Amino acid sequence: MFDKINLLIPFGNFVRNKSLQNFLFLALIQSSTVLISIISMPLLIQSIGAEQFGWVNLSLSVIIVFNILVGFGFNLSAPREVAINQSNKAELSQLVSNVFSAKLILATLSTGVILLGAYGFNLFEGYRHILALSVFLLFSEASFPLWFFQGMEKMKLVSVATIFSKLLFLMGIVLVIHRPEESQWVNFLLGISGLGVNLCLLLYIHTILDIRFFSPQFSSIWKTLNDNVLLFFSNLASHISINGGLIILSFFASASTLGMYSLAERVVMILRLFPALIIQAIFSNSSKLFQEDQASFFSFLKKVYFGTLGIGALISIATYLAAPWIIQVLSRGQLGDAVNYLRLLAPIPFLASLNVGNVTILLVTNLRDLLFRASWMFCAYMLCASTLLTHYFGGVGLCYGILSTELMVFFICLFLLYRHKKDLLYGFYS
Question: What's the domain range around 166?
Answer without folding.
Answer: 12-240
